[in-house]
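Protocol step 4 of 5: obtain the predicted structure for the target chain.
Materials: sequence only (see below). No template structures provided, no constraints applied. The aim of this step is simply to have a reference model before the mutagenesis design in step 5. Sequence pasted as it appears in the construct record:
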Amino acid sequence: MTPWWVALQFLTRLPVRLAGMPSPQQIGRSLLWYPLVGLLIGLLLFALQQLLGGLSLMLQAALLLAVWVGVSGGLHLDGLADSADAWVGGYGDRERTLEIMKDPRSGPIAVVVLVLLLLLKFAELVSLLENGAGALLVLLPWIGRGVLPLLFLTTPYVRQGGLGQALAEHLPRQQLPWLLAVHAVLMLLFGWPALLALLVAGGVFIWLRMLMLKRLGGATGDTAGALLEIVECVVLVALAC
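Step 4 output (structure tokens):
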């Protein structure tokens, strides 16, 4: 079960303690558990929404968004911020883009992008709750964490070293497609909204992957985080409408 605990520790801020440093093989196999971690987060959000049912919709949305961000420690928002700075400041140059991504400081573009994304998510959550569709909260992090293994499976990893390289080099290529297909089928139990969410997520994935290949020749950990955040946001727009 170590790959499960690796995935849970990396993707959440839940109090998980590993007995030792996982091997690169265990890190790679942790990708198999990413969608399940997303499902767990989605169920947590839905359970919280049920508990908050007596509050105003705006307060519910604000609390749900705070927990949504907090449970992952802002990990993927950090990737979005770094990618936004690098994409604008890189002026189309691959090496300059990669260099800016390594800078831990956030520039004004990163701040603007984060504010806009969180504002959009908040407004979309209010709309979703107004429509009485709180159960669809389960789908959002589930799909978001499902696109990460798909990205590593289909896209070269362009930065040497670190967790991302271990994920890319040791991911279980034969098992992942089947596992992702099973999760997609299970999502369809939510009916037509799930089909819409999957189609929208697929379109956004193809578009952003194309941009990554054109600029960088592949993906990095930061662009993976940006992909997750943008997929969640666009899917939430589609469901809220």
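Step 4 remarks: The radius of gyration is 17 Å. The chain is about 75% helix and 0% strand.
Proceed to step 5.
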